[in-house]
Amino acid sequence: MHKKHLFLFLFCIVFKTVSQEVKRGVLFPEKVGFLYNNANEKNFLFDDKDYSYSTNTYKLQLFYSLGKWKFFDFELIVQPQYQVLRHQLQNEFFVLPTEENFEAKIAEFTTPKTMHLYAFELGFLVKKKVFKKLDFQLTIGLGIGTINTRTERLAKGFTFIENGSLGFSYKTSTKTFLYVGSNIGHVSNFDTQLPNNGYNIVGFEIGFAYSLQ
């Protein structure tokens, strides 16, 4: 089974399980959802000529209410995720002749590659009602993960992920919500390994959530 299909299959299992009539406790989410994100570094903020980089991200989301303050609602989002990354070094001179085996590295990094990143992210969400069924929301996310392939910008293995998102959530029925937004993201390893130039991306995202209340 393809990894993307496996992730969707697991999401369906989790969705069905938590939707059952069970006793609600501290760990029981108010909503469960799924989010798809598409992003790349070719954008108005970054557009680095040295390399190409794009992502397709699939997130399972569990929403927990953190309370209200004035006109704002606060939520915590638990977001295990799977990312498919496509990367290619465009500027072969990015790899310096002083590096060990630099010719082999140039050949390796200038070859287009598909990579995979697995991560666990916590999102802090702030939302404000715009209309009766429409909310504006801001989300700040921070997580840890692992990437399975090295590049000239980032070592294989442990990574941090950081995300910021702006968007709108529309209540499509008494139980369902549709989200559309944009995001800015960063991936690096906090200098736990070298190299650690990291990646910066801007993209769009769409999500669906189901209320368990």
Provide structural commentary.
It contains two helices and eight strands, in the order αβββαβββββ. With 213 residues, the protein is mainly beta. The protein has an eight-stranded antiparallel β-barrel. The protein is elongated. It starts with a helix and ends with a strand. About 4% of the residues have low confidence.
Structural class: mainly beta
Describe the global form. Answer: elongated
The total count of helices amounts to 2
In total, how many beta strands? 8
Share of residues in strands: over 45%
Note the quaternary state here: single chain
Distance between the termini: 33 Å
Helicity, in percent?
Answer: 10-25%
Gyration radius over CA? 19 Å
Biggest pleated-sheet summary? 8 strands, antiparallel, barrel
Low-confidence stretches: 17-25
Please provide the ordered H/E string of secondary-structure elements. HEEEHEEEEE
Mean residue pLDDT? 88
Lateral strand order in the biggest sheet: 1-2-3-4-5-6-7-8
Quick overview of this protein structure:
The protein has 213 residues and is mainly β. The chain contains two helices and eight strands, in the order αβββαβββββ. The longest helix has 16 residues, at 3-18.
